[in-house]
Amino acid sequence: MGRIILMVLRLFYKVPYYMYSICKCAKRDDISLEESYAVIKKVTKAANRAGRVTIESHGLENIPKENGFVFFPNHQGLFDVLVFLESCPVPFSFVIKKEASNIILLKQVGAALKSISIDREDIRQSMQVINEMTEAVKNGRNFLIFAEGTRSKNGNKLLPFKGGTFKSAVKAKCPIVPCALIDSFKPFDEKSIAPVTVKLIYLQPIYYEEYAVMKTPDIAEMVKQRIETAIAEYENK
Fold this sequence. Notes:
- This protein has helices at about 1-10, 15-25, 35-50, 80-85, 105-110, 125-140, 165-170, 185-190, 210, 215-235; strands at about 55-60, 70-75, 95, 115-120, 145, 175-180, 195-200.
- It is α/β, with parallel strands linked by helices.
């Protein structure tokens, strides 16, 4: 909470303009996803600087050149999406759980980026989200979804990945991009406003030919292991 207050205080005179710009992107159909993404990326960079957070990204060359893929990172908290918004060069939408979809600003950002809210307790609605996301990816949209379902509360250690979150990728036959977030829990979860660096590693994409014959729980485990390996390699440097 302290770092969020710091962000607001240091951007005090710009906050109304930033809110207006994001809300405009959320409400107007004539603003493209690319235009909305550019606006939100600019605001995100300013907020991160104001909050004394440095984003260090690696493996940008692993992001597929053609749109229509899904990022699958580990999940450490609300700051995770901000890491992607600053570092990722291409627009993406994200899947957000229903409980978080009404948080102020996150709600507007989600709408501007054409993101989807999911109710994990409602099986029928979850299936609708899977089908909607599948069609969007087939049509060239990129998505980010957290396969753990909820954030890990144990630092850089991962929770089990849920196989169901990979159904859209399988149905769309699209590239899966594992992503390793490191220390993304620190900006908002630690009671400190000291400078902090968050790292994001984009791992090599997994193309449909590689996972076509696999069941979704096995795909989930494969992606989880690749992320865990990347985090361990970094921490052992």
